Amino acid sequence: MDSLTIASWSLGSALGIMTFLFIFRIVLTWYPQADLKRFPFNVIAVPTEPFLAPSRKIVSPIGGVDITPILWVGIMSFLREIILGQQGLLTMMMEGKTF
């Protein structure tokens, strides 16, 4: 395995897991009584909160609903497509195409 394949696999896994966690975070917004500091909710909250906390300062809730997890699902999906998609940067580098 070469370094581009390892980087592609690692980035793809990381972005996929983060997208999955943000989707779970969206579901958790439906249950405001869930204590994000306790197991099993902290497994979802700890890796996502560093992204969400600064975003909440920029994007205020709409109708009392925190939409920042939705934005981060879009951002993670966009990054995954730009980097690893069919015409993604790493995909094109692995195929030996020039930019």
Query: What value does the Rg take, in angstroms?
Result: 16 Å
Number of distinct beta strands? 0
Number of helices: 4
Topology order in helix (H) and strand (E) letters: HHHH
Fraction in beta strands: under 5%
Oligomer: single chain
Summed over residues and divided by their number, the pLDDT gives a mean of: 90
Q: Structural class of the helix and strand makeup?
A: mainly alpha
The major β-sheet equals: none
Through-space gap between termini: 23 Å
Task: Give the tally of structural domains.
Answer: 1
Polypeptide structure, described:
The chain is mainly α and 99 residues long. 68% of the residues lie in helices and 0% in strands.
How would you summarize what this structure contains?
This protein has 4 helices and no strands. The protein is an all-alpha fold and 99 residues long.
Name a few traits of the molecule.
4 helices; 99 residues; mainly alpha
Topology:
Blueprint lengths: L2 H26 L12 H18 L9 H17 L4 H6 L5
